[in-house]
Design the sequence.
C-alpha cells in the first residue's frame, strides 16, 4: 500500500504558471484550466471540482472551470480576482494544484441532520473547515439548515460560539469595562450605533464597536457607517482610533473577528434565514472576539420584526444572556417597539442622513430614532457604572444636545480615515396613497424587501424614505414614501414589487 | 406606482449580442459580462447575481461573472457551454437579459425548516422552480437538508412524488403489465438490472427500464450500462427499442422523467445524503413517469449497506409500498443480504465485466451476483403472472443457462445504438494483506469510497476488483483487491486513503 507516492504525482501537487484572467466572481475563488491540459487529464479533474491551490505559505480552495478553446494555454491556469488576491500572486508566478483533503467534518453535518448532537470538537472541525474555504455553498447551506431545522441546544450554541471565536483573531483593550451594543435586527432604519458610540466615547467610556454588514436587511451598521467614513480598518488602526477617541464604528469582517460568521451570513442572506442558535453564536462570537465585557442588546419586538412576540423575545433573551454569561460577559436585553420602522431613511446612505440629523440636532431629525438611541446609550452608561439606574438616558441626551457627541463623531470619522458625505440617489420615484384615509400599518418585511429591490445595501444611495408613520392622515395621491435607486432597472424592479403589494403601507378610509 | 415601466428598461430585458466562450461549467449556466457595460451598470448587476437569459422561446437562469479587462466587449455577453446549448444559440445571436422573478417558493422551504408541513401546492411550486433552474445550490441544499432533518410525512412524500412526476414527461406502453425493478443502493457491485432485463424480455414480458447514474455510489446502473451500449436515448427511440425487444436499459435523466430528481441527486451526492422521504419520492416518481405497473424493490440490508437493519428495512418498505399503492403500482420488496459487496467489480466498467460474465455463463462468473439476479428476476416473473409463487427463479435460471438472456441482451444493446466493449483501466495497483489470516469483514462504505477516490463513476474504467470474500484464508502479501484508475493522480489519491484505512478489508490472524 505504501508505493502510492511512487506514481509520478508531485508530492505537493502539479506546478503550473498562473495568469490573472480579470474575472470578478466575488467571494468565490475560481480557477480556469484547459480541459485537455496534462494536469486535468492526469488527475481526472472535471468542471466544478474543488481544487487546492498553493503559492508559498498561502493556499485557497477554488472551483474549477474548464476551457475548451485557446483562451487558456495547456501549461497555465487562469485565476479569478478572489483567488488571485488571496494567493497574492504576480503574473508568471507558479502555483501547486492538487486535490484537497477529503472533507471529513461533513460527517458531523450529516450526523446533525439525523439528530446527533454536535460536540465542541465536531463544531471546531466544521468551523475550521468553513474558514479554510473547504465547504462549498451546498455544504454551508446544509449546515445552516440542519442547525435551524433541529435547533441547536445550549451546549451546541456554546460550542459553536467557542469554535467561531477560536478560528479567528481576538482584540484586547487596556480598559476594565469594554462596552458593546448589538441590535437583533429586523427593524428597518433602526440605526442607533453611530449615535450611541460617540455619546459613550464622549463620556470617557470605551466602546470599540465592530459592526456587520446587512444579513437579510437593506443595510447593516457597517454599510451605513461606510457612507460617512472608512470602516475596513486593520487591527492596528482600530487600536489607534480607540486609544485616541475611546470608540470606533468599524466593519468586523475586515479583521477576521469570527470569520466563519461572515461566510455563514452570505448563505443565511441567500436563504433569508437566521435561526436562534446561529444568531446567538453569531452575535456573541463577535463580541467575545472583540474583547467586550458589557453588552446591551437592543431587541425590537413586533409582528413584522425579526422577533415577533414577547415570548420569542424572552426565549431569545434568556439564550443570549446564558451564553454571554458562560463567556464572562454581562449582558442586558432592552426590548423595544418593533411594530413599525424607526427613523425615516432605509438603506445605507438614507439611514446615514438620519444619523447625521440627530447628531447635528436638527429640529427635523426623526424623534423615534433619537429616543431609541438615547435609551440604549443610557442603559450602556448605567452598565458602565457612570450613572445610577434610571439616570443614564438623561446623561446621554445632554451629551447629544450640547454637541459633545457630534464633535466626538467627527473625530472618530477623521481617525478612521476621514469623514465623507453620504451619496445621493440618481433615480427616485414616490409611492402615492391610492386613497384618502389613515395609515394603519407599515409592513417591516415588505418595506425592507422594497428597499432591497431598489438596490440596497449594494447600492449605497438606494432604499427608501418614509414620509408617514402609522396613524397619519393622508390624501389620495399623497406620497407615502419615496423609492431611491442608483440604477433605472432597480428602480423599476422595486416599483413592480410595490405595484403588486398594496399592503406595504396600508391606508384605510375613515 | 404605475409609471415604473416608463423608465427606459426594455419590457423584456436588455438585448445583447452573445458569444460562445468555450468554458465548461458542467450543469451550471454562467454568463460573463463586462463589469462596466451598460446593462450591468443600469441594472445594478454584481457578480454572482442570477440572471434570466432569453432567446426566442427558450430561457435559462445563469450565474453572472464580471470581467474587468478586454476579454469581453461592452456590448456582448459570453456564455458557458451549458447556457449556450440550453438556449440553442449561434454566434452573433442576441439574447434578452433581465432580473428573474423573485423566488416566491423559497418561503415554503423556510416554513418547512421551521416545522410547517408542505402542501401539494407548495411542493409543486418548489419543484417547478427547481426544474426551471431558479434554485441555486444554496437553495437546493437547504430544501434537501430541511426534508432530511425533519423527515417528510406520508402526505408530503405523496405530494413530492406527484409534483416530481408532474413537472416532467411521462411514458406509456401498449401492455397491461409493465414490469420494473429498483435497487435501494448502498451495496457496491450489486449490478443486477442488465442481467434481469434480458431475462424478463426474453420471456415475452415488458420491462422498459430507466436507470439512474450514481448518487453516492461508485456506479449507477446507467453508468455501467453505458460502458456496453448507449443509454441516453430519446423517448421515440426508447419506444422503438421496447416495442422491438420488450425491454431496454436506458438513462432516465436523458428523457426528463422526473427531471427535478436529477437536479436533487447532484446535491445529495455532494452531501453524501439521501433521506427516506426523498428516496421514496425519487424512486417512485421515476417509476410512475416511466409508466410502470408492477415493481420489485431489491433491498440489501447490512451494517454498512444503505439500509442498516431489519427495522429500517421494514419502515422503508412500508413507506415505499404505501406510496406506490397510492399511485396504483403493485410493489414488492425483496430484502437481501447487504453485509458484503456483491460480485467482483466495483465501478462502471468493472461491474460490466461481471454482468457480461454471467450473461455469457462463464464458470468463473461471480455466483452471488448471478443468484441475486435470478432471485429478483424470479420475483418479477411471478409478479408478471408467468409463474406461480416459488417457480419464478427456476424459470429465470433456465433463461440464463440456455443463452436466451445473452441473445436478448445483445439485441437490446444493438437496438439502443450498438454494443460496446467496456473500457479497461490504464493504472492499477493491488492492495495486499498485511497479515496471514482470515478475511472477517469488508466495509461497503469504505470500499465504495475507495472506488470513488480512484475516479469512479466519472472515470468509467476506474474502481476496484475484489479478490476475496469474508471467510477467505489469505497470506501476508496476498492481494485482497486491485484498485483501477484512469489517471495516476486518482490512483495515488485512492492508495493514500487505503493507507490510512486498514479496515477496508479486515484480516484477522487465526
Sequence:
Amino acid at each position: 500500500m505504501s508505493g502510492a507516492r511512487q506514481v509520478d504525482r508531485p508530492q505537493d501537487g502539479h506546478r503550473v504558471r498562473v495568469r490573472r484572467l480579470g474575472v470578478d466572481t466575488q467571494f468565490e475563488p475560481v480557477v480556469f484550466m484547459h480541459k485537455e491540459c496534462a494536469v486535468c487529464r492526469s488527475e481526472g479533474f472535471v468542471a466544478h471540482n474543488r481544487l487546492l491551490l498553493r503559492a508559498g505559505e498561502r493556499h485557497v480552495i477554488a472551483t474549477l472551470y474548464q476551457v475548451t478553446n485557446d483562451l487558456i494555454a495547456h501549461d497555465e491556469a487562469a485565476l479569478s480576482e478572489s483567488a488571485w488576491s488571496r494567493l497574492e500572486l504576480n503574473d508568471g508566478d507558479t502555483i501547486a494544484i492538487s486535490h484537497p483533503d477529503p472533507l471529513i467534518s461533513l460527517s458531523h453535518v450529516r450526523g446533525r441532520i439525523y439528530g446527533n448532537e454536535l460536540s465542541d470538537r465536531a463544531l471546531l472541525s466544521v468551523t475550521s473547515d468553513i474558514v479554510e474555504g473547504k465547504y462549498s455553498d451546498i455544504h454551508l447551506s446544509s449546515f445552516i439548515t440542519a442547525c435551524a431545522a433541529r435547533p441547536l441546544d445550549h451546549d451546541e450554541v456554546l460550542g459553536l460560539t467557542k469554535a467561531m471565536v477560536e478560528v479567528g483573531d481576538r482584540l484586547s483593550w487596556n480598559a476594565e469595562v469594554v462596552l458593546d451594543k448589538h441590535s437583533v435586527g429586523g427593524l428597518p432604519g433602526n440605526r442607533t450605533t453611530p449615535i450611541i458610540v460617540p455619546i459613550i466615547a464622549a463620556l470617557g467610556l470605551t466602546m470599540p464597536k465592530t459592526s456587520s454588514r446587512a444579513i437579510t436587511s437593506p443595510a447593516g451598521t457597517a454599510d451605513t457607517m461606510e457612507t460617512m467614513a472608512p470602516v475596513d480598518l486593520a487591527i492596528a488602526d482600530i487600536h489607534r482610533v480607540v486609544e485616541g477617541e475611546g470608540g470606533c464604528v468599524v466593519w468586523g469582517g475586515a479583521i477576521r473577528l469570527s470569520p466563519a460568521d461572515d461566510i455563514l451570513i452570505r448563505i443565511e442572506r441567500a436563504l433569508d434565514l437566521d435561526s436562534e442558535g446561529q444568531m446567538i453564536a453569531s452575535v456573541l462570537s463577535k463580541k467575545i472576539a472583540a474583547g467586550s465585557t458589557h453588552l446591551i442588546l437592543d431587541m425590537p419586538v413586533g409582528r413584522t420584526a425579526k422577533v415577533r412576540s414577547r415570548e420569542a423575545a424572552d426565549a431569545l433573551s434568556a439564550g443570549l444572556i446564558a451564553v454571554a454569561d458562560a463567556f464572562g460577559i454581562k449582558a442586558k436585553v432592552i426590548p423595544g417597539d418593533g411594530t413599525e420602522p424607526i427613523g425615516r431613511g432605509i438603506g445605507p446612505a438614507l439611514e446615514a442622513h438620519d444619523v447625521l440629523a440627530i447628531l447635528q440636532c436638527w429640529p427635523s431629525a426623526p424623534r423615534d430614532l433619537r429616543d431609541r438611541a438615547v435609551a440604549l446609550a443610557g442603559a450602556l452608561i448605567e452598565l458602565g457604572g457612570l450613572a445610577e439606574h434610571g439616570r443614564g438616558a438623561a446623561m446621554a441626551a445632554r451629551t447629544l444636545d450640547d454637541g459633545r457627541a457630534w464633535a466626538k463623531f467627527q473625530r472618530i470619522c477623521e481617525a478612521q480615515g476621514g469623514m465623507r458625505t453620504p451619496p445621493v440617489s440618481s433615480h427616485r420615484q414616490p409611492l402615492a396613497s391610492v386613497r384618502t384615509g389613515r395609515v394603519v400599518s407599515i409592513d417591516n418585511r415588505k418595506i425592507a424587501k422594497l428597499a432591497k429591490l431598489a438596490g440596497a445595501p449594494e447600492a449605497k444611495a438606494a432604499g427608501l424614505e418614509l414620509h408617514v408613520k402609522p396613524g397619519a392622515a393622508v390624501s389620495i395621491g399623497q406620497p407615502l414614501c419615496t423609492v431611491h435607486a442608483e440604477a433605472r432597472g432597480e428602480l423599476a424592479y422595486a416599483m413592480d414589487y410595490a405595484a403588486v403589494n398594496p399592503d406595504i403601507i396600508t391606508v384605510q378610509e375613515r
In short: Chain B touches chain A through 85 residues (CB under 8 Å). The first helix of chain B runs from residue 38 to 43.
